[in-house]
Specification:
alpha/beta, SAM-dependent methyltransferase, DNA_methylase_N6_adenine_CS, two-stranded parallel sheet, Rossmann fold, nucleic acid binding, SAM-dependent_MTases_sf, 11 strands, transferase, 7 helices
């Protein structure tokens, strides 16, 4: 199906969505069903949830801690013809009280350990550093929000795969599908995509690797990444946080 381009307002002075977000949304679409109740955790400007909602009719909710970024997600949702009814919660996920359980939960959470040297930009730190969303606590809380047969779809730093997979298992999740993403065929993986369930007891399906580039030239995208960009069809409109009133 040919998709309409998706315009995303985001901050010039904050964290912006990147290729990881598009790859996760593309990965997630194969596990969605029409009219699923979907929750996007740490939604940022709403890019992942909105791409999923564009794919098929969904009942979409998003949770975003930063108030101004949440306002942008609301604007981005209202500017579509498929997610005007999306509910965006300006909350810490651990303060979020859902009205019922979700069929699908999607998250591209903060990867970086709280001990790293932080940016002077607080908005970027919320999106990048685990302070507000510790992995162990997050995975356990997600289990409380997901239906027993529901799907959890996440991505994480491949270098932290051991901690990521341990946290999922410790929270009671069982992997069904996983895929590693590599920048080049001779480089180490940089991203891990997973789909997990609470009640799954079968083997893990390790999908073929996804390579993003043919050479160190950042414009030399593989056919696989080109297909993801073609599917996503997003374009960014930069605004300054001072221009957003809440």
């Amino acid at each position: 199906m040919v998709q309409k381009p998706l315009a995303i307002y985001q901050f010039s002075d904050g964290y912006c969505y990147n290729t990881d977000s598009l790859i996760l949304a593309h990965f997630a679409k194969d596990f969605l069903k029409p009219h699923n109740r979907v929750l996007d955790i740490g939604a940022g400007s709403g890019i992942i949830g909105l791409l999923c909602a564009r794919e098929m009719p969904l009942s979409l909710e998003m949770v975003e801690l930063d108030s101004k970024t949440c306002a942008l997600a609301q604007i981005n949702a209202r500017n579509t013809d498929f997610a005007k009814e999306a509910i965006i919660h300006n909350k810490n996920i651990f303060d979020f009280q859902a009205q019922g359980l979700f069929d699908v939960i999607i998250s591209n959470p903060p990867f970086y350990n709280a001990n790293i040297i932080k940016s002077p930009n607080a908005r970027k730190n919320i999106a990048r550093v685990q302070d507000s969303m510790p992995l162990d606590k997050l995975t356990k809380y997600i289990k409380r929000l997901l239906k027993p047969r529901g799907n959890l779809l996440m991505c994480y730093d491949a270098r932290e795969s051991y901690n990521f997979l341990f946290a999922l298992r410790n929270a009671g999740f069982f992997l069904q599908n996983m895929q590693f993403v590599y920048p080049l065929s001779h480089k180490s993986a940089t991203l891990l995509l997973i789909q997990a369930k609470i009640d799954y007891k079968g083997d893990v399906n390790v999908l073929p690797p996804l390579f993003t580039h043919n050479s160190p030239n950042q414009q030399d995208n593989t056919k696989e990444l080109q297909a993801i960009y073609q599917w996503a069809k997003t374009f960014s409109i930069k605004v300054h946080s001072h221009d957003v009133c809440i």
